[in-house]
# Entry
Amino acid sequence: MKTFIGIDLGSTTTKAVVMDEARNVLGRGITNSRSNYDTAATVAKQEAIVAARFHLFREALSKSHALNGGLEAFIGQLERDFRLEQYLEQLADLEQVCENNVQAAKFGDSAKEVVVALQRLFSLLKEEAPTLFAPGAKRKSDFFRDIAGAGYLSAGERVAKEAGVRYDQLLNVFDRSIIEVENRVYSGTISKNLLAALERTYAAMPETLHRKEKISLPIQSVIDTELEETYVVGTGYGRARLPFSKEHIRSEILCHGLGAHVMYPHTATVLDIGGQDTKAIQVDKHGIVESFQMNDRCAAGCGRYLGYIADEMNMGLHELGPLAMKATKTVRINSTCTVFAGAELRDRLALGEKREDIMAGLHRAIVLRAMSILARSGGIRNEFTFTGGVAKNEAAVKALMDLVRENYGDVTLNIDPDSIYTGALGAATFAWRAVVEEGKEAEHKEKEAA
Amino acid sequence: MTYTAGIDIGSGAVKTVIFRDGEWIAKRVERIRRRDPMELARHSFDEELKEKGLNEKDIAYIATTGEGENVKFATGHFYSMTTHARGGVFLNPQARAVVDIGALNGRAIYIDERGKVLSYKMTSQCASGSGQFLENIARYLGVAVEDIGGLSRTSQNPEKVSSICAVLAETDVINMVSRGIATADILKGIHISMASRLVKLLKVTGITKGTVLLTGGLAMDDGLLHALQEELATEKITSLTAVNHPDSIYAGAIGAALWGAFRHERLKELQERAAA
Amino acid sequence: MTVQDIVKRCEHLFEDLDFNVVSEWKAAQPGRKAIGYMPIYVPREIVHAAGMLPVGIFGGGDQLEVIQGDAYYQSYICRIPRSTIELGLTGRLDCLDGMLFPSICDVIRNLSGMWQILFKDKYVKYFDVPQDYADEVGGKFYIHEMQALRTDLGRLAGKEISDEDLKKSIAVYNENRKAVRELYAYRAQKPWQAPTSEVYLVLRAGCVLPPEEHTKLIRSYIAETNSVERPKRDNARVVLNGSFCEQPPLGLIKSIEMAGCYVVDDDFQLCQSWLLDDVSVEGNPLEELSKAFLHRSAQTASKYDDKKEDKGKHLLRQVKSRGAEGVVFAMASFCDPALLERPMLQDVLNKHKIPYTAFKFAENTGQMAPIREQAGTFADSIKLWSAA
Amino acid sequence: MSTVTPIKDAKKKEVVKEDAMWIQKELINKNYHEIATAHETGRKVSATFVPGNLNELLMCFDFARRLPETDALQNGLRKKSGKMIMDAERDGHSEDVCTYVKTDLGMMLQGQMGPTGEPMPNPDLLLLSYTGCFTFMKWFELVRQKYNCETIMLHTPYQGDGKISPAMRDYVVKQIKEKVIPACERISGKKFDIDLLRQYMKESVKAEEDLVRVLQTAKHRPSPIDGYFGAVYYIGPMFTAFRGVPEATKFYRLLREEVEQRMREGKGPITPDGEMTEENYRLVVEGPPNWTSFRDFWKMFYEEGAVVVASTYAKVGGVYDFGFRHDPEHPIESLADYCLGCYTNLNFPQRIDMICKYIDEYQADGLLINSIKSCNSFSAGQLLILREVEKRTGKPAAFIETDLVDPRYFSGANVKNRLESYLQMIKQKRTAAAAAVA
Ligand SMILES: Nc1ncnc2c1ncn2[C@@H]1O[C@H](COP(=O)(O)OP(=O)(O)O)[C@@H](O)[C@H]1O
Ligand SMILES: Nc1ncnc2c1ncn2[C@@H]1O[C@H](COP(=O)(O)OP(=O)(O)O)[C@@H](O)[C@H]1O
Ligand code: SF4
Ligand code: SF4
Ligand code: SF4
# Structure
């Protein structure tokens, strides 16, 4: 089938959206942006296509009524099992790379012990893997680097002690190895992992086993369906480095404006807070950008700020918002310099302020910066849509709601759980328009013809 | 016998030392990496005491420095530049300037032969040349901190980092990697930009000749030392020689312990005088 | 009132970002008007003579959340104009009937035009001062400027300002300046009795109080604080320089003191000590004001020094007369006049072998650790080594 | 799609310039040589600033005329400024302050080697004609501190109320008569001759007339010039040591003929890569350009077919297009009016009026502000300009940030990103408007 793909290569994360001919979103994919933009774009796209397949599974299975009411539970389980398979695959890869890297690290005599410690460490990680993907489990992040890293660090200290090696040495090996694993694309193994996941799911939900045939058939047919990449549009910070020609690239401002308009057709003002930029965009009723403002050359108060804070607090990004929500007061934080965020935090802790109160202050500080950029772009008009990764953070959302009310009165605030994909959605819509409305062909086809 | 201790709480590591009558008898360093520095200081100091079979009571003066203003069990606090200066001349009596590169700030301190601070210059606010930045980038590039120096020294075509903001500089680095720039060249580029900042700080202090001792956590990064030496050469400042010392990282803690001893004597004098 | 009460009151005035005390003053008598002025210097006598309250506007400090103000300024411009705009746009300056923007720097100069656009119904004047100090040239121009202000304010007040009015106001301000000089002298003598964080607040109260009341306040502060002994610390005596426009947060002033420095002179709120001695109440009042400005006023970075030899004279005088051991340069980030001036002043200090240290701040600086470290090291080096 | 076609008979392979431009380049090089050899030839050297410079007056005393801003700019174009700024910072100057000043001081620290490679002598007179920027005052104080040069302050009051009052004019005239002229006489050893001044001014007026014509050809579609990137070359002689010099008058005549010819032929501006053949966007720009990456910066515009039709920067040395001319009949008074009327001495409402007028008269698609980190005189408050102009003209405005001569503050990717977004937005709006009409 024909698909239209938008890729938003952000400074922090790379997002992809796959759309069908009727402009339905089939799937979304995300990965962390990394040194290799091609890889990031490929992985995000692959993730989106996987998600698209799940979407199609759901459709096919619901049509066939094979699961009769058990559909959501089944798909949910299958998805978790698939993630687990993927995780295990990467974990095995990481273990291998780590072991190889021990040699390069020149640990001398202790190299042997380090290898033993690593084996122990990885067997622990493998053991705990299924609990990470159990129903209802909270993960610190969706990215392998973070999940595996968190496990590695927390188990590492203990394992190091037991094995009589230095914790530092284990850190050293991890730092050396993760990047290599992260930059690998596991494209060949998706079907395999899917089928393996399917087996796990049957095992986990034995009540479905008797319909195995009925269930597997539509799934197999979806797996066999080719998803043709009809047209791809790229956007985002790294768009100049995307492997596309200029024709296939749109400015992120236009994409965010359009994406927000597609999600909420009455949007007038869009705020996007990403990893290192904050954009305020005013759009008209057709989703056309009227004016925009971005943060200046200083990255203060952007999403990366929260990253530094999370590092400093030894927490996952997901956990910052909930912690700040527990605040009973808001500590005033004036500096939003990302780099000094940690120092600011320590300063406040030393003064005896409570963590949650400081966190509330930090979130408010970020949103204050955004409010200024919004004011620069012409203020907030009804309806107001908040997008970008930071929109996932409930404390940031709360601070924003407070400040909007204080400064602009009652305004409808739209936040979509998938708001991080807004730019990619806009890009996918541009891709769709290019073909369906403007009659363009996919570039690679032109090239083949030439 | 008089024991004094120096505890230097940085933003990257906690350093503790113990002195007995001016003689250095114990040292310890712990990277903080996601731990509570105050607890770590307590723990590390306890371990050190245990190792030497000492009791906290035996220590006449526990001096803190760095971010240790709020350490409860300390006798007194000295500001880091005061302590680094003193620690610097202790480690290398020839030192006429101490360059301390911390996780967030860099400082150049111009001193005389007794460790008196003549003038200093500190980086402020925006800091793409900070130690933490280098560490982040190294982690990103998959290089262990200990290996940075060696790698940097192999660089043939260093690639300079131009952004002033560390956050944007991170992106610069990502771009470099995607352009296929070698890790060594990136690290060296960062070293060069740090070195050039440090030379700038040094010049502003007004020092004209003598030995410059690197202290602090990054002193052991010989890639940085090397870049600093090169930068001095390109700037044609031949009258300054940059060196490090295997114990450079302890400079602040040493200075604190020594000043602690000094204050201890003073306080004793004052007490005696008051009693008389 | 005890000294704590006085300081509390001043603190209260300082923290009141809504300028309630100004509104109250206006409400006490119908028809009263208040005129705001930005830092360094304006001849408040003229405003006072028009029966109006001159109100010093020194930015929003570290308690104001700046949203709109940031929408008007890039990150590389100092903070005071943005927090001042924030004060204006949030209605906090509605109690003012006009604003005076003295010639401080390009930022304030441009702000005067922005104010004209943003607050169309208010009286706005860019108040130029001469950089030529000949009575016949710069003086004449300056008298013209003052005359224009006098006419404008007379019109606003509905009554011309007479020479007699002006002379009375000059006398009032002569007394106020005298009290300020007494306060500075007292602090220099016993800095432990009059910490700068308090002196600052007492002076700052002069931004919103009528001068007569402020004069009394200063004097009662001196009397009260002198009556309670406070512990004397082994601190280094320093002159603070460079904070003539954007003000450091109070926490920063406290940090400097905590780190071991006694501030024995400074250039905060220069307007109150700009004219170095009494202005004559004989003769033509505008001419006298002009002469005082041209020949007997403080030096600061916004003012041209006619001769190379003049550079830093005022600072040197401060150091010598107050018995200071060093100078702390505390300048607002991105403050062009102050930061360009600094190397020249340092040069002069070097020649006189006076130690100094320097750092930058913003009115909302939250991190005091680097400040403490620098001020502390400076104090350490003066203290530990002064005998040697 | 390329909007630029190289010109065949270009004088030099890599860069394309208008013919008149080669004359301009010669003029500038000659001036540097004159300055370099002034002391050998027994002449005195003056230094003064571009906005409100008293060039004709200085000519009366036969000063070799240095303009430190131009030196800084030239050093920027030649990519030498970065090092100079670093040197000045190492010498204790703050990172926060104007980089023109630091480039100048850095050049002195490096042994006063001028942009063309000839050593520059110390000035004998620092004429502190002080128009529209406080930094100028500190700049010469700093130079005086180091080199002990004699300094004369000419204070130009600011047009706070948007007009030049008689008191302001008198003040400036008096300073010129009673302070500036006597000092020039004393330093140069030459008597002031007002008729000589009149004679130079007559030259100025001719050249001013031609410059205005050149700049106004941009009202034509397509515009034969770029009123920002191209204009910086056009204004060079007029705003510096050449106003009043006969060669400069000739230069402007030639330039005018050349440009008017191009206009008649319907040609676009000449860029370093050749002639621009497609005019996609017409912009008004506020704020000085970036010099260290001048070519790259310009390229971002012409590659997209964006022409700057008018800029405020082309008015820093005199707002001639609104009618001001030097007046040989009242030479001193007209010098005073000239000082008082430069762009940065205008107040905000005046600056906004001017930009709105440009957008209207030059039929521009919108306003682009290049905000300069160094320059508070231009930058402080530009965001209000942006807003007011948008409000009053209904045209979109955009904001980019660079610096004059500090290469650390030019982020190509960042600027390109914003510029592209802005142009795409204009295009999208235009398409939508066309669709709405259809
Ligand atoms: N699950 C989450 N919870 C809270 N914050 C998040 C989450 N995911 C991402 N973020 C925030 O979003 C930022 C990245 O936003 P994103 O829109 O992906 O940026 P970019 O487009 O620049 O890559 C991160 O720096 C982080 O602060
Ligand atoms: N509040 C602030 N926000 C952003 N940057 C700042 C701030 N204060 C200072 N800086 C930056 O700190 C940097 C280094 O300053 P430093 O070299 O220590 O001082 P100085 O400029 O006085 O010599 C400069 O780039 C300056 O722009
Ligand atoms: S280091 Fe901090 S203050 Fe500086 S530009 Fe980056 S985020 Fe902004
Ligand atoms: S702080 Fe400095 S730059 Fe800012 S307005 Fe005041 S004098 Fe001007
Ligand atoms: S601040 Fe602006 S106008 Fe003033 S000298 Fe610098 S660049 Fe020129």
Remarks:
- Chain B touches chain C at residues 67, 69, 78-82, 105, 114, 116-117, 119-120, 122, 124-125, 259 (CB under 8 Å).
- The beta strands of chain B are 3-9, 13-20, 23-31, 59-66, 76-77, 95-101, 106-111, 117-122, 210-215, 240-243.
- DSSP finds eight helices and ten strands in chain B.
- Chain B has a mean pLDDT of 85.
